[in-house]
Write a structure and sequence with these properties.
The protein is an alpha+beta fold. The protein has one domain (about 5-190): Gcn5-related N-acetyltransferase (GNAT) (Aminopeptidase), CATH 3.40.630.30. Helices cover about 25% and strands about 25% of the residues. It is built from five helices and eight strands, in the order E-H-H-E-E-E-H-E-H-E-H-E-E. It has helices spanning about 15-20, 30-40, 95-110, 125-130, 145-150, and strands at about 5, 45, 55-60, 80-85, 115-120, 135-140, 160-165, 185. Strands 1-2-3-4-5-7-6-8 form an eight-stranded mixed β-sheet, with helices on both faces. The longest helix has 15 residues, at about 95-110. The chain is globular, with a radius of gyration of 16 Å. The structure holds coenzyme A (COA). Coenzyme A (COA) binds near residues 93, 94, 117, 128 and 132. InterPro entries: Acyl_CoA_acyltransferase, GNAT_dom, NatB_acetyltransferase_subunit. Keywords: Acyltransferase, Transferase. This is N-acetyltransferase domain-containing protein.
Length: about 190
Amino acid sequence: MANFRRFRPEDLNKLSKCNLDPFTETYDLGFYLQYYAKWPSLFQVAEDQHGNIIGYIMGKLESSPDVYRFSEHYLPWHAHITAVTVAPEARRLGIGRLLTEQLEMAADANDAWFVDLFVRVSNHKAIAFYKSMGYSVYRVVKDYYGEHSSDPTLSSEDAYDMRKPMKRDVKRQHVRDDGEKHEVNPSDVW
Ligand SMILES: CC(C)(COP(=O)(O)OP(=O)(O)OC[C@H]1O[C@@H](n2cnc3c(N)ncnc32)[C@H](O)[C@@H]1OP(=O)(O)O)[C@@H](O)C(=O)NCCC(=O)NCCS
């Protein structure tokens, strides 16, 4: 049985069950607190009966800076999943799905066009997870994890930028069927 609630700052020293996983990016402490301060409803944890954090999702709401408004890479108002992770012993129990559904509800409540995220192209399990939830590849960001990896021991790698349209995108304007064919450079991603 997992209990779902908002992240609290004292959870910071309880993230290691999740963060020891090599596909889970680990950030400076201030990075987590920034999400807590700015988008508290998009930072949710799952805890077990002993109070251990066995999963969390951390997200934000944003659009690209105005200076890029006329760029083909401009991103309109959307929610972004910065991290979602479930401790290995608690996987395939629906915890990741519930955390992600909570964030999608918040995205809809905030009138976001879509939810997006970046995932290593070799992270087949996470890609299967996202696809099962209705996400599809929007574009491939070449060598994204060369610049953006929080873990220098992990190899440089391309990212799939995956998206799921939210209720606002009735015409599915912000998703693609052939996203794997659209390659961009990290400098096109803000
Ligand atoms: C990806 C991750 C968050 C999924 O969490 P989870 O709680 O195990 O996922 P769920 O139990 O909610 O799975 C929902 C569905 O996703 C799919 N799925 C999940 N894990 C899968 C796997 N290992 N292989 C294939 N499909 C999988 C299945 O369709 C599953 O439904 P089912 O169990 O009824 O078949 C978890 O594996 C994880 O923490 N991975 C390491 C961190 C990571 O890669 N995060 C993403 C970085 S972008």
